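Usage

Read records sequentially. Each one opens with the input sequence:
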Amino acid sequence: MFTSPRCLDHKPGAAHPEAPERLSAVLRAVRTEDPTALREPEPASREALERVHPARYLDQLATLASSGGGMLDRSQEAAYFVQLVTALRGADGYQGQPLLIASQAFDPDDARRLHEAGQGTVQMSYPMEVWDEQLFPVVCPGKARHVGRNRWLDNMCQAVEIFGRGNVGSNLVAGVETAAPDRFSDEEQALLSTLEGFAWLARHDIRPAFSPWTVAPGSAWEDKQPPGTHYYLTLGWELYNLHKRYGLTYDVGLNAGCYKCGVYTIPRDFPRLLDGLE
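and closes with the structure output:
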């Protein structure tokens, strides 16, 4: 069994099952059974990596890491996904399943190239993270600087024209709007802002979704607390009714059973429990 002390630094948040405490318990159990079973891995050489990965893929990962984990050039990111979609569609066993891509809000020309590569199988999610116009550059400084909120909205609407109604969505990280100091007087005002975003997206045939905000250690707002259960249940109920009112489906990205993922349980549970959708 290969492990490293660095694995204990993986802290995705209190709501996620992966946690240092869980790994520590597993390691204690393994050491009790067989202390010699644990080994620390050594960094793999480029030659070793190329035995299992194409060189081009490794070059792309190196570029991604050197840029801080994201591609500032949206056309470069779209080109990467065109290659990925083409490879997936040509893989053995592929039978036309929808391919969900969560990315920056691509400009129309890049979106068209991606749609052509997928031949109708690609679904897009352009996550806004937060709806409020004043909070967008605070919560998403990179998106605000390199794309801009208005362009993000415009590109989502263009994507509906390209990929088709029901194949474009956007996710908000619900609850983070309550953490910003001096923005909303109370949780009710923050809730209304997020609901306003849901309604705008639905009116423009973009499927709204949300994931609950979890406080990450070391983040700017690590001393804040997310809103309570009532806040999220209200959002889930209102979102459920918006989907009904506008005839939007829950298909974008959910064929893989995403309601089982911790971040998507609330918005997915309403149609699952009330309408029997799996």
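Summary fields computed downstream for this record:
- The longest helix spans residues 229-246.
- The mean pLDDT is 87.
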